Amino acid sequence: xxxxxxxxxxxxxxxxxxxxxxxxxxxxSTHVLNTATGVPGSNMALSLYRQDPTTKTWSLLTSxxxxxDGRCPGLITKEMFVxxxxxxxxxxxxxxxxxxxxxFYPYVxxxxxxxxxxxxxxxxxxxxxxSYSTYRGS
Amino acid sequence: MMAxxxxxTTHVLNTGDGVPAxxxxxxxxxxxxxxxxxxxxxVGTTNEDGRCAGLISRGAFGPGMYKLRFETGSYxxxxxxxxFYPYVxxxxxxxxxxxxxxxxxxxxxxSYSVYRGS
Lengths: 138, 118
Known about the structure:
The complex is a heterodimer.
Chain A (H helix, E strand, L loop, with lengths): L2 H11 L14 E7 L4 E2 L4 E7 L6 E8 L18 E7 L1 H7 L9 E7 L6 E7 L3 E7 L1
Parallel strand pairs in A: 1-7
Antiparallel strand pairs in A: 1-2, 3-4, 3-5, 5-6, 7-8
Chain B lengths: L7 E7 L4 E2 L4 E8 L4 E9 L18 E7 L1 H7 L9 E7 L6 E7 L3 E5 L3
Parallel strand pairs in B: 1-7
Antiparallel strand pairs in B: 1-2, 3-4, 3-5, 5-6, 7-8
Protein name (chain A): 5-hydroxyisourate hydrolase
Pathway (chain A): Purine metabolism; urate degradation; (S)-allantoin from urate: step 2/3
Enzyme class (chain A): hydrolase
């Protein structure tokens, strides 16, 4: 059997996903947009919590800061992403303060239910100083 | 004798169906800055027009941090539908300059928005 044929067979038995050399993208993503100025909400601190279904206490899973595009990759791993109640906490007032403004909302918390952790969930936050909206996107 | 209307009002709209969100339970809370604990000030249910009168009295509405909690999950359940959000909590800061605050909630099963209106 030729070397190339052996390689091919090896590929079938031990499929190598080249992408696993990088971390698999988080099944949960967010995107913060500053709708007042029409730019991504960058450098905003946020954290992700999950509620324990029996004790109802919230546990911190990840803390992060949005990047220049208003995103925060790596929020959660596929293994950690189980069905349950999650909470995304955005430090909105701190964000506006850092650009010299006040915000009506000291922070924004979005609580959502994950029923099928096999799906991808995108929780967007569109924010101005006096309004915000969120939606389940893609 | 008519009660003076609340300086804080809300209006909940079901944008999925294009109707006011009637019979939605909500509550107003205040953060006690001395002990950093939330205290419930009032509970209510929206009327047929999605509004809820008497949230707070003029005298009680001083500067501070408040939270309006909307039982949106129960609302959608009552319509036989599920929703992405079990409830919506909106936390906001009132300063000495704030006289009347109108805080509508526009919501569907998979999105919602709040804004400071009039």
